[in-house]
# Entry
Amino acid sequence: MTRSVEERLLEMKRSVENYLEKVLQGDDSRLYAAMRYAALSEGKRFRPLLLMASGQSFGASPEILLPFACALEFIHNYSLIHDDLPSMDNDDWRRGQPSCHRAFGEDVALLAGDSLLTLAFEVMSKAPVPEELIANKIAAMAEVSRQAGPRGMIAGQFLDISLQPSELTEELIFELMQKKTGALIVAAAKVGALLAGASEEEVSLMESFGQRLGLAFQVRDDILDAGQSNSQLIERPNYAQLVGLDKARQLLKSLVQEAINLLQKANRLSGELEYLSLKLLDVA
# Structure
C-alpha cells in the first residue's frame, strides 16, 4: 500500500527526532539537560525535513542525510536559545514552555547554545558518505558554516538588534528575513542536493528554491504574528504590519509559486518538497 506524503514526512520526522535523542543521550549533567530541553522540545523540524526531502529527491540515503539534518536542527535551536536571552530579544517563553534561560539560568543556557552549535559540526563530520562524495561532504559542511555564520544567520541577528524601529524599511526587513530566518533554510535545500552528488546546476536551482522558501517561511510567520497581541510587535512592526496583510499574503503566494517553479525546473517536484512548500500557504 502506497504511503501518503504526510505519512512519509511523519516517518522522516520520527527518524530525525530519534537521531537527536541518540546524540544527546548518556549524560545526566545540567548542561546536557538544558541542551535536551531546547533541542528535543516540540517543534516543526522544518529545516531537517527539508534537507531530508531535498537529498532523497536526488537519491541520497537517509543514513548520509540524517547527521546533517540533525546538525541543522541543533544550530537552529542554539540560535533560539541565544535569541531569547535578556541581552537579545529577552523572551521568557519558547514553544509553550519557559525559554531555556528561564528554566536553567542565563549562564547554563548560553553554554547549552554554544554546545549545540559545536556539537553540530562533530555530528556532520561523522556522516558516512562514500569516498566519491567526500568533497561534497566538505562542501556541505562549509555551506552550513557560511549560512549559520557572520554572513548568514548571525548577520541577520546582528541586523535585528542594530536596527531601530524608525529605520525599518521593506528592503531592510527583506534582508533581515533572508539572513536571520532564510539562511538555514537555504542550507537545508542546498546541502541535501550536495550530499546526493547533484550537478552544479541542480545545486544552484535548489539554492534558489531555498531562498524563496526561506522568505516565504518568515512572511508566513509574520502574517500569523500580525494578528496577535505582542508588545514587541507594537514597538517593532514585522513585514506584514509594515506593508499590510493583503500585500504580505500576495508576496507569500508569489514566493511559494516561484519555489514550485524552481522545483519543476530542477525536475525535483517530489511529493515531500511540494508539500512542504504548499504547506506555507496555510495561514489564518
